[in-house]
Every structure is written in structure tokens, then in C-alpha cells.
Amino acid sequence: MSNTPSSSDRSLSLIILFAGTLFVSATLMFILQPLYGKLMLPLLGGSPAVWNTCMVFYQMLLFFGYLYAHLLSTRFAHTRQIQIHAAIILISLIALPVALPDSMSPPTDSNPTLWLVWTLFISIGLPFFVLSTTSTLLQKWFSHVGHHTSHDPYYLYVASNSGSLLALLSYPFIIEPNIGLNAQKSIWSIGYIALIVLIAACGWYFVRNYLQDKVSDEPEKVVEAPSTLAKLHWLALAFVPSSLLLGLTNFVSTDIAAVPLLWIIPLTLYLLSFTLVFSRWAKPIQRVSVFLQPIVLLPFIAYSFINPAILPYWLDLTLHLSAFFLAVMVCHGELAKHRPHTAYLTLFYLIMSFAGMLGGMFNTFIAPFIFNGIYEYPLMIVAALLLRPAAQRQSNEQWKIWGMQAIFPALILLLGGLIYYGVSDLGAYMDNIGTALILFAGLSYAFRKQVVSLALLTGVIIFFIVGLRVTMSNTIYKERTFFGVLSVRDSVLLNEQGKPEKYKELFHGTTKHGAQRLASHVQEPLTYYSRPGPMGQLFKAYDAVDEKWQVGVVGLGAGALACYAKPQQAWTFFEIDPVVVEIAKNPEYFSYLQRCTPKAAMVIGDARLSLESEPAEKFDLLVIDAFSSDSVPTHLLTQEALQLYFSKISSNGLLAFHITNRHLELKKVLSDHAKQLHYAALIQEFKPKQEIPLVVATDWFVLAKNEEDLKPLYKNGLGRWQKPGLYFDMKPWTDDFTNIVGIWK
After folding, report:
1. Confidence band of 88 (pLDDT split at 50, 70, 90)
2. Which domains does the chain have, with CATH numbers?
3. Which pLDDT tens digit goes with each residue over 350-368?
4. CA distances (Å), origin 722, targets 302, 621, 682, 701
5. How far, in Å, CA of 650 to CA of 628, rounded?
6. What is the pLDDT of residues 105-135, one digit of tens each?
7. Which among 662, 671, 648 is positioned nearest to 733, based on CA atoms?
8. Collapsing DSSP states into helix, strand and coil, what is residue 477?
9. Which SUPFAM superfamilies does its entry note (predicted)?
């Protein structure tokens, strides 16, 4: 006889209770993720790897939460389940209110990944574990409460994912712009207490209903256990989207800004896919996703991989997000389609979470050690194509028709490029190799019904392009660290006499962080630090008074600023990534440091943490030039950060801030700080008046305690240095509050 109650209860209130509890639990979980990521960022220089490591930690705890729910619901009686779960919840209360542990600082001489995971575990491990158990455990309880839908509780997963989506979308647009971090922590803790009350109500109903209706007259149905092959299929279908999520997140957050706003976009799409594939419209949505995936794949390969530079960034980002979303939709759609009977519900979620954890661990712990670039991302694009559902055999005539149809997307793509960019710009893009590769991308569409052929052809195209790009870029050194991918390249320019001349470039991700000519200009500062530019003007303006200056520079790059040093000056560089120091000190790559400041002090670690230990009023000039690819870490831009900088500057000292950025108007933040904190300030948005080799447009902000100290710069700037504008719509950025949306260009 089965001890599962008969399905007779049709009350809406029961669905509301369980679905509401899942909704609240998921909301709390996905508010905690960006909230705690934002708390951790300042300790690790704003690196995108902080978020990826946090994601792996969350996936690990999600797996252990699902394992706990599986063992609890299959090994223990119903009342014992409630008792054990209540004890776990009560223990988790010791972690409230959520906060960073005191006296925790990351290692400066080794990879901080394990340190970050441990810090997360001791600070939010217990509450997050409880949240991770809720979805699976409550669905299992619901399958026994006697509701008429108890036979298929998977639809409750929609409530859970809806809560996740609401939390993720509300964080950058509602919570972050309006609520400070301290208030966020307090409100979250109150919400966690409310969730405990809801879980208690679900547990009470589960026990009461089960005990009242524990005998049924219906014969027990034998449910066939899932095969090993089916379990491996679930594993693959969950592993690939998880790895793709972190791969795309790395791409997005490296080149715009390491802030929760942009991390949230891929995760939102990832969760939305779960909501759609477990909804009542899952079948038609899955058919559309399978149909659209190879169509979107064509322009995705043609533009985002063959020549991404030709597209506006927002359009390139849209292509990446579209290809990612369709890939995870197809994988998660297959996962939902092959879900088992509720007798194996917890096993299904357990395998799914285990695969998600493996995907995250692959990207965070394995890929950085076996790849010197972000190669796991294209690898998983190909793997996602291998997981497409196999099509039925078609006649040769049908394949011929499809083959002819494949020509039209390629022609439309080429024609669109012709119209959009104009005939004059085609030479840079439509070379023989590019044209051939685009045609191959078009050909891949003909294999959309042949899973292996489509995946292999796509893989060949992508990895051929990746290898070709590395070869053509003349990369002589490439290293992947916790803080990003660093590369040194050989390049050629036309010098002042119109002759070709070699030089070297340093890249962080896709952004140039420095360059050095190898001929007679070997000690000439270039790019953002050129003599015609703002920094050259600054050192020239103070040439008569800077003989014995103490100079501090946050962010080393190739070390170009060092060549403004004078013999009597003392220079200190603060750099978070030890590999950057190795590159800048290696004369085979760059010789600025060796030639200009061989005795300069090097301090490894996050700038704010390192500066705190420096003596008060030590520096006469402090330069903030810290970038993660193209973005300044937000914790270096707050009021508290500026107050720290000025505490380390002499009474007549200067603070120079590099704010060149493609996407964010950082001048708004610093202008508001100058107004609020009563500092004198000047800004220059420099554009070269004539074409000079490796002299580029750049923006710099200079602040001082007294306006008198900026007069030499203002006087000699001949109108190039100006007082910053006033921005009345700005709310001051502090360690407790930042709003990236408000400064978007």
C-alpha cells in the first residue's frame, strides 16, 4: 500500500503558501549574491574573477543543499525531516546580520581564489545553505500533501525562478540606486526571518496533512528508475549552460565594468530559461529555440568572432547574449523534457546542481590553469550545439532544399555589411579570409539538422579564427591570472619620417594598458601618459618645484609614467597583480622601469588596503591609474577612497586621476566628490591636435586641497585644463552606495 495521500485537495491557498515560500527564498538568495559580491570587490581590486568565484561558491552550496534535501526526504520519516531542518535553520541564525568577517585580508603573494571561497563560507555559508535547500525540499513536501497537482510539482520551480529574476533585475535598478549596503544587509536579515516563518508553515501543513491521510486504497505504482545514460544526459545538459554562464560573464564584466549590474545580465537570462522551460508553454518555446539557434549562430560567428571590432559594442554584446540565451534554452529545454517521475525529483535536482557546480569549477579552477585565454567560452558554445535534439532522417531532396536555403542568410549578411559600412570601409573587413570564413559560417546553417556536423564545423571556424587572431596579433607573451588575461604584443607604426618602426604593447583583456617604442624614443612615455597629454603637461607645469617630490602611482601597467621621474625623487608603485610587475620589470618586454626608476618601490596588493599602511602626508603627487581592462574598480572612486588618498598627500600635494573610459562618465563621480568634500579640481579631456605616433586621446582629473596649488597647471594649460561641471542629479558615491546606471554614457 502507498502511504502517499490521495490527490483531492484543490485549495488555491496551499499553492500560494508553497509557491510564495519558494518565491521569497529565491528572492533572498539572488539578492544576497550581488550584495555580497559588492562587499567582496574592494578586497580584490574589483576583478571580474571575484564574481565568478562567488558564483562557484554559490553553485557548490546549491549542490550540497540539494544533496541534503535528497537525503533528508528519502532517508528520514516526515516528522524527523521537520526536526532536522528546524535545527539547521536555528543554527544558521548565528550568521545574522550578514557582514564581512573582521580582520580578513586576501593574500598578496598567491592566487586568492581559495581565500575568497573560505571567507564566503564562514560569513554567509549557513544562511545560503538553508536557502539552497528550500526549492527541492518544499517541492518534495508538496508532492505528499494531497493537492490535485501534487503528482507534478515541477511547476513550482517557476515561482522559484520568478523570485530569482525579480531579485536580479531589481538589484541594479531599484535596490542599488536607492538603498545603501548597511541598510541592504539589515533588510535582508529581516527577510530571512520572515522566510523561516513561511518554511515553518509549509512544514506544519506537510506533517499534518501527511499524518491525516497516510493510507490510500490505490495500489502502489512501480516507477522505473532513470538509467545511467539518462543521468549522464542530465549532467551534460546542466554542465554546459553553467560553464557558458561564467564564460560569458567573464567576457561581459572584463570590458565594461566589474559591477553587479553587468554580471546580472547573463545570470538573468540563465534563470529566465528555467522559468520558460518549466512553464506550460515549454513545448512551443523549445521548438522555437531549436529553430532560432542556428540562425542566430550565423551572424554571431561572422561578427562576434571573425571581426568583433567592426560592430558597436552594444550590438556585439547583444549577439553574445542572444547566442548564449538560445544555447541555454535548448539545453534546459531538453533537461525539462526529460525530467523524471516525482519519486526521483530530488535526484533530478541533485544531478542538475552537481553539474552546475562542475561547470563553475571547470571555469574557475581548471580553465585558468590549462588555458592562457578565455577559451572555455567558445569550447562550450560548440558543446551546446552537440546537445541539440537529434532530428529525424530527412530525404535527400529536403536536404538539398535546406542547403539552398543556407545561401540566403549568408548573402543577407554580406549585403547588410555592404549597406551598413559602405564600400569605402569594406577593405578592412571583407578580405579573402574574412569572406571565406563568413561563407563557411553560412554553410554551417545547412547542417542545423545534423547535430555533430553543425557543432564540428562551428568549432573549426571559431578555433581557427581564435588561433589566427593570436598569430596575426604577434603575441609574444600571454598569461591568465585571477585578475584577467595579460598579453604583450609586437606591433609596427609609421614614425615621424613615415618609415615603419617596431614597438611593444601591453594588453589587459582587450584594452591597451601601455606601449613602448624600441628605437630612439625608448624612454618616451606614450599612449595615455604622453608629453603632449595631461600628465606631460602636469610634470612640465611643476618642473621647478618637484625636484624632491615623493610620488605614488596606483596601477603599474608598462611603467611609462616612471620616465617622468627625476634623480632626487622617490617613487612607489602600487599594483594588485604580481604578473604585471614581472612584465614591466622584464627588459625583453618593457624597459621603462629599468631605465628610469630602477630603485622604485613595488607594493603588491589592493591599493586602498596598501595605502592605509603608508605614513600620513607621505606623497606630494598620488596618481590613481588602476584599471581592470577598461574600467576603474568602483571602490577606488568613493568618497572614503578620496579621503584616504588625501590623508596620504602633503598639504600642497596633488591627486591625479585617470578616468579614460568608453562606457562610463567617471568625471561625474569625481566632480561631485570635489563639490561635496570642498577640494579644488581641474579636468582635461585631451585629444591630440595632430597625429603623433602612440599619442592618444585621454581624460584626466586633478584635485588638490587648495585651489592655489592648481594655479601652475591652470595657467600653463592655456585653456586645456578646465574646472569640472556641476552635476546636480548625482548622489554621492560612498562605500555604502554606488550607482553605475547614473553615469552610463
Report:
1. very high
2. 1-220 (1.20.1250.20), 222-472 (1.20.1250), 521-743 (3.40.50.150)
3. 898 899 889 988 988 888 8
4. 44, 20, 5, 10
5. 28
6. 666 666 677 888 888 888 889 999 999 998 8
7. 671
8. strand
9. MFS general substrate transporter (SSF103473), S-adenosyl-L-methionine-dependent methyltransferases (SSF53335)
Q: Burial-class residue 310 by CB neighbours within 10 Å (0-12, 13-18, 19+).
A: middle
Cβ pair 454, 384 in contact under 8 A: no
N-term to C-term CA, the chain: 67
DSSP symbols for 32-50: HHHHHHHHHGGGGTT-HHH
Name the one residue in this structure whose C-alpha cell is 599594483: 575
Q: DSSP H helical segments within 560-704, as ranges? A: 578-585, 592-596, 607-612, 639-647, 666-677
The whole model's pTM is what? 0.74
pLDDT at 726 over 70: yes
CA pair distance 562, 529, nearest whole angstrom = 10
Does position 658 have pLDDT exceeding 90, yes or no?
yes
**Is the Cβ–Cβ distance between 392 and 375 less than 8 Å?**
no
Q: How far apart are CA 24 and CA 36, in angstroms?
A: 18
Side chain identity, residue 602: M
For residue 598, with 0-12 CB atoms within 10 Å meaning exposed, 13-18 middle and 19 or more buried, which class applies? Answer: exposed
The cell for 271 is 534563470
Q: Are 683 and 699 contacting, i.e. CB atoms less than 8 angstroms apart? A: yes
Contact between 78 and 210 under an 8 Å Cβ cutoff? The reply is yes
Whose cell is 526571518? That residue is 193
